[in-house]
C-alpha cells in the first residue's frame, strides 16, 4: 500500500512559514528548525524513507498548517537514529524544547520518538506503529526489516524503560501480528503502574501498519496532540474513531475483512472507500491479491454463498492472473461447484491455450453438460495432443456416449503417451468388457490391478472378468484379495461363496466317478476342467 510522505491532507491552507534553518548535521542525521506562530511545539523524527533535502523535514507541512514550532530530525540512512548522533545534536535541540513539546514519529520515527524524547528533554511522545527493535534476535516475531539489519549498529537495539519519556503514547493495530508484537514489547519495557513512563497504547484495529492515515488531517493531528498533552487516552480514542472517515481507513479495513474471510463486510466497505476518493485501481489490486485465498478459505469453511458470487464479483479483476484463476477454479471443483468453476478455467485458457491441465479442468467442470464437456476435451486434444490425461478424459466421455471405437482410440493413444497414468488400464478394461471383448479386458484389468494392488475397485473388476471367463481358481484368489482390502464387500463375499461351493461339488463328483470306475471297471466322465487363466 502507498505510504504518506507527510501526515497531512491535501488542499489545506498553510500558515505563512517563518524561514527554517539547519541546526545540526553530522552526516548521520540532520536537524532542522522551522519556527511557528507559538500555537504549539513538535519534535519530529522522519520515517525510514524520508531523506534530508534542504530544510524540508517530516511533518513540516503539518506544523505550518497548525502554526506549530517544529524541530525536525531526518536520518541519512535506515539506521533507526543512533544514540550517539542524537546526543551530539542535543545541545542544539534542548534550548528550543518547551514544556509542551511533543516528540512525534511514525514507524522508524516512532521508535526514535519513544527512545530519544527523554534524552532531548521532552516529556511527551506520540509514536505511530513504532518498532521496539529490528534485531531478529530481539524480535523474531517481526522480520520485515531483517534486510536492513546491520549488526554493527543494530545488534541489541531496543527501547529501555529508562529511555521512555514521562508520558509516552503509542498508536498501533493490535490485530496486525508484526506491529502488535512490537507494541507489546514496548509496553513491557514501560512501567507496569499507571503514571510515569507507563505506556499509553491506543488501539487502531485493522489498519495494519497504516495508523498514520488516521491523523493526516489538521484537525485530527491537532486534537491528537491536545489529548497527548492532557494525558487522555480515552479522548485520543474518540478522535481516532471520528477520523475513520477517510478512504485509507475504509480500504485498509476492507482488506482486513477479506483476509479474515468476511467477504460481505468488505463489499460494504469498498463503495465508501471509492466515494471518499480511493482509486478504483487500488480496489482491483487488493481484490486480485486477496480474493483467491479468501474464496478458498470460505469454501473450506463450508460457505456455499461465495461459490455463486465468485465469478460475478471477482472474475473481472482476476482475469489477468493465471494462477489465481486456476486456484479458484480447482477449489470450486474440489468443493462440489463444477459449473461455478467453468468461467475461471475459460478465462485461464485465454491466457494459456496450450496448457493441457486447463482443458482437462474445464472439461471436468462441465461434467453436468456431457456434450459440451466432450467438445472441450476434443478441442483440447487438438490444441495439446501430447497430454495423456486429456486423451483419457476424451475416452471416458466418448465411452459414456456409446462411441466405443472412438473411445478406445483415445484410451490407446493415452497409453502410448503415458502407460503409468492412474486409472487408464482400468478405463480401457471397462470399455473392452462393455464391447464383449473379455479376454482383452482381462489383460487390461490385470495391468491396472498390478499398478495399484490396494484399489478395491480394480481387484473387483479383475475378479469379475476371471469369473466370467471361467478362471475359477484365479477368481477365488481375486475375490479373497477384495475381502482383505474391504472385509464388508458383499459382492465379493457372495461370489466367493458360490465359487467355493461349486468347487466342492466338482471335487465330490470327481471322487464319485473314481469309485464307480473301480466298481464297474469303466470310466465315467465328470465335469470338464475349467479353462486356465493365462499367467495366473
Automatic annotation (TrEMBL):
Pfam families: TPR_8. It comes from the Bacteria. TPR repeats lie at residues 456-489. The keyword Cell membrane does not apply. Coiled coil: none annotated. Keywords: TPR repeat. This is Alpha/beta hydrolase. It comes from Roseomonas elaeocarpi.
Amino acid at each position: 500500500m502507498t505510504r504518506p510522505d507527510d501526515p497531512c491532507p491535501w488542499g489545506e491552507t498553510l500558515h505563512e512559514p517563518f524561514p527554517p534553518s539547519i541546526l545540526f548535521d553530522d552526516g548521520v542525521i540532520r536537524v532542522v528548525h522551522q519556527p511557528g506562530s507559538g500555537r504549539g511545539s513538535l519534535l519530529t523524527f522522519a520515517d525510514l524513507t524520508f531523506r534530508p533535502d534542504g530544510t524540508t523535514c517530516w511533518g513540516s507541512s503539518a506544523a505550518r498548517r497548525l502554526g506549530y514550532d517544529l524541530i525536525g530530525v531526518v536520518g541519512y540512512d535506515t539506521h533507526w537514529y543512533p544514540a550517539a548522533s542524537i546526543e551530539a545534536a542535543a545541545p542544539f535541540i534542548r534550548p528550543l524544547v518547551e514544556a509542551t513539546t511533543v516528540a512525534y514519529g511514525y514507524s522508524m520515527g516512532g521508535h526514535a520518538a519513544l527512545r530519544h524524547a527523554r534524552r532531548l528533554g521532552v516529556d511527551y511522545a506520540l509514536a505511530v506503529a513504532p518498532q521496539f527493535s529490528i534485531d531478529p534476535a530481539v524480535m523474531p516475531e517481526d522480520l520485515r526489516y531483517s534486510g536492513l539489519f546491520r549488526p554493527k549498529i543494530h545488534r541489541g537495539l531496543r527501547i529501555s524503560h529508562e529511555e521512555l519519556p514521562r508520558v509516552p503514547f503509542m498508536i498501533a493495530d493490535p490485530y496486525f501480528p508484526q506491529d502488535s508484537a512490537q507494541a507489546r514489547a514496548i509496553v513491557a519495557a514501560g512501567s507496569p503502574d499507571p503514571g510515569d513512563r507507563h505506556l499509553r497504547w491506543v488501539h487502531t484495529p485493522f489498519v495494519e501498519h497504516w495508523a498514520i492515515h488516521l491523523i493526516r488531517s489538521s484537525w485530527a493531528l491537532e486534537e491528537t496532540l491536545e489529548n497527548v498533552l492532557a494525558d487522555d487516552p480515552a479522548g485520543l480514542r474518540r478522535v481516532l474513531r471520528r477520523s475513520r472517515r477517510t478512504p485509507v481507513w475504509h480500504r485498509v479495513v476492507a482488506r482486513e475483512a477479506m483476509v479474515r474471510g468476511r467477504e460481505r463486510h468488505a463489499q460494504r466497505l469498498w463503495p465508501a472507500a471509492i466515494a471518499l476518493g480511493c482509486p478504483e485501481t487500488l480496489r482491483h489490486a487488493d481484490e486480485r491479491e486477496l480474493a483467491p485465498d479468501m474464496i478458498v478459505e470460505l469454501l473450506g469453511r463450508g460457505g456455499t454463498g461465495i461459490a455463486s458470487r465468485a465469478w460475478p464479483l471477482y472474475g473481472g479483476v482476476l482475469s489477468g492472473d493465471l494462477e489465481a484463476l486456476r486456484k479458484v477454479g480447482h477449489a470450486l471443483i474440489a468443493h462440489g461447484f463444477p459449473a461455478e468453476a467453468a468461467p475461471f478455467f475459460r478465462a485461464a485458457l485465454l491466457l494459456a491455450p496450450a496448457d493441457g491441465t486447463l482443458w482437462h479442468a474445464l472439461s471436468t467442470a462441465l461434467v453436468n453438460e456431457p456434450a459440451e464437456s466432450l467438445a472441450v476435451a476434443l478441442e483440447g486434444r487438438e490444441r495439446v495432443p501430447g497430454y495423456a490425461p486429456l486423451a483419457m478424459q476424451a475416452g471416458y466421455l466418448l465411452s459414456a456416449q456409446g462411441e466405443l471405437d472412438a473411445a478406445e482410440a483415445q484410451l490407446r493413444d493415452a497409453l502410448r503417451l503415458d502407460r503409468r497414468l492412474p486409472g487408464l488400464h482400468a478405463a480401457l478394461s471397462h470399455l473392452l468388457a462393455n464391447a464383449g471383448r473379455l479376454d482383452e479386458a482381462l489383460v487390461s484389468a490385470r495391468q491396472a490391478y498390478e499398478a495399484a494392488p490396494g484399489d478395491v475397485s480394480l481387484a473387483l473388476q479383475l475378479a469379475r472378468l476371471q469369473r466370467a471367463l471361467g478362471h475359477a481358481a484365479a477368481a477365488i484368489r481375486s475375490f479373497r484379495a477384495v475381502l482383505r482390502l474391504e472385509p464388508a464387500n458383499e459382492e465379493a463375499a457372495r461370489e466367493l461363496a458360490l465359487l467355493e461351493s461349486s468347487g466342492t461339488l466338482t471335487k465330490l463328483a470327481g471322487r464319485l466317478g473314481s469309485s464307480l470306475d473301480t466298481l464297474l471297471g469303466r470310466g465315467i466322465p465328470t465335469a470338464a476342467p475349467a479353462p486356465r487363466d493365462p499367467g495366473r
